[in-house]
Specification:
Order of helices and strands: EHHEEHEHHEEHHHHEHEHEEEEH
CATH class of the largest domain: Alpha Beta
Shape: globular
Distance between the termini: 13 Å
Largest sheet: 7 strands, mixed
Helix content: 25-40%
CATH architecture of the largest domain: Alpha-Beta Barrel
CATH superfamily of the largest domain: Glycoside hydrolase/deacetylase
Structural class: alpha/beta
Number of domains: 2
CATH topology of the largest domain: TIM Barrel
Number of helices: 12
Strand content: 15-25%
Radius of gyration: 20 Å
Low-confidence stretches: none
């Protein structure tokens, strides 16, 4: 059922996860969350198929290795959701799984809610049946059921315009108490600096920047990207003592220019969400990443199809 890896071509795969959840309602509302059990099962499966787990900080030395293993695996978590904390801490020590944790320092510093989660919560909780907002001089109306349409419109805009549109939503629903928004099934609580430092004390945990506050790299002016990238490295260093050289692109969106800017800011590796493996020796600055799928007893066939697709060119 599962294709075997060839031994004549060494590759690096990077798995990307977000939240780890057991509540069925929250799982249904947050498509990037999976169960802790299925996440661990997936990582173990890669290991059983011949992958060696490595730290993100080992990437540059892989081409010098003399072992005969065909593949290496980097495990990464984006956003720093609190529902991953206990699991990551346990896996670092009990499973000896190296993990790259990508965080947004401004989100951590101010205990903020990610904007798209707040959008979904406000649409769910707002009293009116619809809201009207102004975008580029034109009025647009969104019904209570169109949170995702509003969210997609936000993602199309330059970052400052996104913030302006989001601000209109906040203004029109300012009667909603913050604690009600934070309690929404769409909203994650995130780790604080103390919890991040706890994980970072383990040498297997590598911190990465996930931007300053989850701004899309191609949606901000170049100078702003440069300032934000430098500030994110500085905050992580000041708060944790870790001098990160890794940058995980929010939404995986990048360009050759953003890679160049981040390289100048001291980042040796960036990470996209292009679903592909990476050839050892062929890694420049940017690595592809697969979305973590989760391996469960009820999705073996689907998981096998996904595995075989991802490794079609690497199988024997």
């Amino acid at each position: 059922m599962f294709n075997k890896l060839r031994s004549d071509q060494k590759v690096v795969s990077v798995l990307m996860y977000h939240g780890l959840e057991t509540d069925p309602i929250r799982l249904a509302c947050n498509s990037l969350d999976i169960t802790p059990e299925s996440c661990l099962n997936e990582i173990r499966f890669y290991r059983e198929q011949g992958y060696r787990l490595v730290s993100a900080d080992e990437l540059d030395s892989l081409s010098d290795r003399t072992d005969d293993l065909p593949a290496y695996l980097v495990v990464s978590f984006d956003d720093g959701h609190l529902n991953t904390f206990e699991h990551i801490r346990s896996w670092l020590t009990e499973e000896e799984i190296p993990i790259m944790l990508a965080i947004c320092p401004e989100i951590v510093e101010h205990n903020e809610v990610y904007w798209w989660e707040e959008v979904r919560a406000r649409f769910e909780l707002m009293k009116a049946n619809s809201i009207e907002v102004e975008i580029d001089g034109s009025s647009m109306r969104f019904s209570r059921q169109e949170a995702y349409r509003f969210e997609e419109k936000c993602r199309e805009l330059p970052h400052n315009s996104l913030l302006s549109l989001f601000g209109q939503l906040r203004c029109k629903t300012d009667y909603l108490p913050e604690d009600q928004i934070r309690a929404s099934k769409y909203v994650h609580e995130n780790m604080n600096w103390e919890q991040i430092c706890t994980l970072a004390q383990n040498h297997l945990c590598i911190l990465a920047s996930h931007s300053l506050a989850h701004e899309i790299a191609t949606n901000v002016p170049e100078q702003e990207l440069r300032r934000n990238a430098q500030r994110s490295r500085q905050m992580i260093r000041e708060k944790t003592g870790c001098d990160t050289q890794h940058y995980a692109y929010p939404n995986g969106i990048y360009s050759e220019k953003t890679d160049s800017i981040l390289l100048q800011c001291g980042f040796s590796h960036t990470y996209s969400t292009v679903g592909a493996t990476n050839l050892v020796g062929g890694i420049d600055i940017r690595l592809n990443r697969f979305h973590g799928f989760g391996y469960r007893s009820d999705n073996v066939g689907q998981f096998a199809h996904m595995w075989n697709q991802r490794h079609a060119s690497l199988s024997r």
